[in-house]
Design goal:
Elements: H1 5-26, H2 30-53, E1 57-58, H3 72-88, H4 94-118, E2 123-124, H5 126-129
Helix pairs in contact: 1-3, 2-3
């Protein structure tokens, strides 16, 4: 096994939850949620690919799909599921919509930080981390290619 078991488990769980949840929600309104699923999958994958091309981050370890330069199956299942769930369970009153979507974004960011800290699924590159101001201790690289940078976490 090339990767730790939890990286396989994280990828498989994300794909299964995204696919099952999306199917459950699309069933409610095929035309509306089906179109939203396709659009959010295309936009999410496109943005992810654009960020990879821009050199902001890389996916060095893709336990399930090794053909593409990004986790394509995760991008076309879990990202649209998050959008569909966000739309389906959005509060009716406008005053609660902003905190609701803030919470969704914060959960996504915390999930990325956890994945970054405890797995090798993705890494920020020096183009995305090094800059002004430089973190204490500099922006040293962790790979021989010099394209990956250490994540600076205070504390």
């Amino acid at each position: 096994m090339k990767f730790p078991w939890y990286e396989y488990a994280a990828n498989i769980a994300t794909i299964v939850i995204g696919a099952a949840g999306s199917l459950f929600l699309i069933k409610r309104d095929l035309k509306r949620y089906g179109l939203l699923f396709l659009l959010s999958g295309a936009v999410g994958t496109g943005l992810c690919y654009a960020f990879v091309l821009a050199g902001l981050y890389i996916f060095p370890n893709r336990p399930i799909q090794t053909i593409w330069s990004l986790p394509f199956l995760v991008m076309v299942t879990f990202v649209p599921f998050t959008v569909l769930a966000g739309v389906q369970f959005s509060p009716q009153r406008w005053i609660w919509k902003i905190p609701y979507y803030w919470a969704i974004v914060h959960i996504a960011v915390v999930s990325e930080v956890v994945l970054l800290a405890y797995t090798g699924i993705f890494r920020f590159t020096s183009a995305g981390i090094c800059g002004t101001p430089t973190p204490p201790g500099g922006c040293s690289t962790s790979s021989s290619s010099g394209s990956e940078a250490k994540l600076f976490l205070p504390g």
